[in-house]
Design goal:
Blueprint lengths: L3 H6 L12 H12 L1 E6 L4 H6 L2 E3 L1 H10 L4 E5 L2 H10 L4 E4 L7 H4 L3 H9 L5 E5 L4 H4 L4 E3 L4 H6 L7 E4 L2 H11 L4 E2 L12 H10 L4 E4 L5 H5 L3 E2 L2 H10 L4 E5 L4 H8 L4 E4 L23 H10 L8 H17 L8 E2 L1
Bound molecules: 1,3-dihydroxyacetonephosphate and iron/sulfur cluster (SF4).
Length: 338
């Protein structure tokens, strides 16, 4: 029975039984219930470590499209759970906290997008995966930061395109493809906060450090990057590059996997504008950090919160996701599979 207090809070707020081995109990429930735990790189290290699979947005979608588990537990944010549900409507999809939203997804609602599309007849709509199911239902093809260029390149050069909601990723794709897509004016509050001056100050102290930048960062930050890529792309670069120091301009959860993969290398989180000092603070996505081991235990135990998507929206949103997965087939998203 789903308690009223849980519904109000958006997560199961039952106390954890005393003295239990949380990690062992979580793994045990997964086995009993044929459940898999997926986690995004921005979640807490303890959540990543217990997951069956850790990856970027593309890898998570690719993975959920092929799982034979009965239950998918998505440790990430709401739109990721929705993507899983759209891909697997017959499975039970669980998230840990319904409050785990996304400022980027919030920056584009379906009604506003519909109006914009109606004002621009003849345009195809390309949506970043960080969108609601209702926005995806209005979309011709979905992209992630791993495959955005590949997907855009699949359109004829003169195709008229609307790209949303991330204006920074859209601007980056325009610059590397020579296109002039119409950009939605949305953004992520985490990636929009990095301080150019503070990153340059760290670089001055660590002249050999490589600067890793996620394309959700604004253009001035992109400009000083040694590499621009998705979380998985940046992780791959940090593993393969011979440098020993890296300044990382994306959500700081990715440092967990980087440090695990390269214990001998130094990873410095790029600081946001809002802190006083340089080099000792990092940018965290408060939504991602709502995912905790305690909530994971309760979510599995009570099989709630579930993600539900209206069947009509699900069918309409599936098409652009399937199209993305089809185009990306050849592209093996670099991933941390366990
Ligand atoms: P990627 O995992 O595709 O790099 O996306 C980052 C992100 O913002 C997820 O919310
Ligand atoms: Fe959304 Fe930004 Fe958090 Fe990613 S980091 S989930 S884009 S708010």
């Amino acid at each position: 029975m789903i308690k009223e207090s849980w519904k109000q809070k958006g997560f199961v707020d039952e106390p954890i039984p005393e003295g239990i081995d949380l990690a062992a109990e979580i793994r045990k429930m997964c086995k009993e219930k044929n459940a898999v735990i997926l986690a995004h790189y921005y979640t807490d290290g303890a959540v990543q470590d217990i997951a069956d699979f850790v990856g970027d947005s593309l890898a998570l979608a690719q993975w959920s499209a092929k799982t034979d588990a009965d239950i998918i537990v998505m440790c990430g944010v709401h739109f990721m759970g929705e993507t899983n549900k759209i891909l697997c409507p017959d499975k039970k999809v669980l998230v840990l906290d319904l409050n785990a939203g996304c400022s980027l997804a919030d920056s584009c609602n379906a009604a506003d997008l519909k109006k914009f599309v109606d004002e621009h007849p003849g345009y195809k709509v390309v949506s970043y995966v960080n969108t609601t199911a209702a926005v995806k239902a209005l979309t011709d093809v979905v992209v992630t930061s791993s495959n955005a260029k590949l997907v855009i390149d699949s359109f004829p050069q003169d195709e008229k395109l609307i790209f949303g909601p991330d204006k920074n990723l859209g601007g980056y794709i325009n610059s590397v493809t020579g296109r002039n897509m119409l950009l939605w004016n949305g953004g992520c509050h985490v990636h929009g906060q990095f301080s150019l001056a503070k990153i340059l100050a760290i670089k001055a102290e660590h002249p050999n450090a490589k600067i890793l930048v996620h394309p959700e960062c604004p253009a001035p930050i992109q400009k000083i990057a040694d590499v621009i890529g998705s979380t998985a792309g940046l992780l791959k670069y940090s593993i393969e590059n011979e440098a020993t120091e890296f300044i990382v301009a994306t959500e700081s959860g990715i440092l967990h996997e980087m440090q695990k993969a390269c214990p001998q290398k130094t990873f410095i989180p790029a600081p946001p504008e809002t802190t006083e000092s340089i080099g000792c603070s990092c940018n965290e996505c408060a939504y991602m950090k709502l995912n905790t081991l305690e909530k994971l235990y309760n979510t599995l135990r009570y099989e709630w919160p579930t993600i539900e998507v209206d069947p009509d929206i699900q069918q309409k949103a599936l098409r652009p996701i399937d199209r993305m997965l089809e185009i990306s087939k050849a592209l093996k998203s670099p991933m941390a599979n366990k």
